[in-house]
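Meet the record:
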Amino acid sequence: MSIVKNILIKQKLTLIIIIISAAATLLACTALIIYDQITFRNTMKHNLTMLAQIIGRNSTAALIFENENDARETLEILLMAVENIDFACIYDKNDKVFTKYRRSGSNVEALPALPKEKGCYFVQNRLIVYSPIVIRDERIGKVYLQSNLKKINARLKNYVIVVTLVLFFTFFISYLMAARMRRIISEPILHLANKAREVSLQKNYSIRAKKFSKDEVGFLTEQFNEMLSRIQEHEVAIQLASHELKNRAQQLQIELSERKQAEKKIKKSLEEKEVLLKEIHHRVKNNLQVISSLLYLQSNKATEQQTIELFNESQNRIRSMALIHEKLYQSENLVNINFTDYINSLISHLSNSYHTELHKITIDKKIDHVLLSIDKAIPCGLIINELISNSLKHAFPDNMKGTINIEMTFNKHNHVHLIVKDNGIGIPEGLNPEKTDSLGLRLVNTLTKQLRGTIKHKNSNGTKFIIAFSA
């Protein structure tokens, strides 16, 4: 099959026509031979049966009078002219051989032990006939004839020769017809293939194939030309799109270049603004430190303890605001402040300011990673400063030991929870933190409102403030 796949179409067409013609001829001849063989065999059976009946009619007298010589002469006379009879015999009414005939030169096997009933049979390479001899419905004997099949074999041999010759001429005539007929199919296909190759090499989709007929090949040619038309349309559209893309790419390149220049200018401007903002934060921080230093110098001239404490509280508040500007100045992010670092620095400053080590007061911290803008960071820083300062001043009198806890958490809803608690003596009974005259607590309430948050107070085993607001 692989050989057939690789040959040319015209060769395939020739081979198909020859094979179909030969197969049809061979089938027709085979059917004719089979029909002839069946017919000839039936004719032989009929003729041999008639011959047996004739022999039986001519042998009735010899059987009645038991004249074997007459019976033998009858067999020889009737069978001598029939070449295909090799052996014959006549049985008496007791199925014993009465007389027999054998053609000279024939190779005949022994007679059957007992004759069969009436019938005609093909046995191996011979035809056998049993025919009863009857007079007045009484069987007086049987005729046995054995014929060879030479005529059938000779006839079959002649047919084989004829069929061979017919097949040979069929091959020859089919080849001649195929040589002419294949051009009708192969030429349009070859033309179509050449046009396809030409289109592939030249990339010229305006080429069209010639339509030779209105059959399947003609339909294929129409579809091929239609395909080329569509490809040509797409090619034109692609060329236009490519030209447009090139123009667009050039425009984008110009826009990109202009954008890069604008980005450079913006980046330079941002760098300048960042430097300026850092400088502003630095100066604000320095100015606040100057104010803190002035307050410190002024507090040295005060003689009353209450006045000194007021100066210290003011210094701490200013220091908490200055610390925010210091963190912004030191940070790369000028928008948000990392409150973890801020609280650590603020607590360190307050611990030094109130000498927590001397009073044996411990400050524990649990701070999440929280980023706050400067608008939220300054109020929140002041709140933490006030609450821790109040705990350090009032929660542990008479050098009491104690602990101050500060927690700051940040949840997925962008809410900040600030908890400041201590285990000191707590707020005196009857004192309402929201309506007190204390500047620190009033400041805490005001700053919480500024953050648009909520504040809760608990006075159990110390003091606990819970403040919540949106980051």
In short: The domain at 336-470 is CATH 3.30.565.10 (Heat Shock Protein 90). The first strand starts at residue 85 and ends at 92.
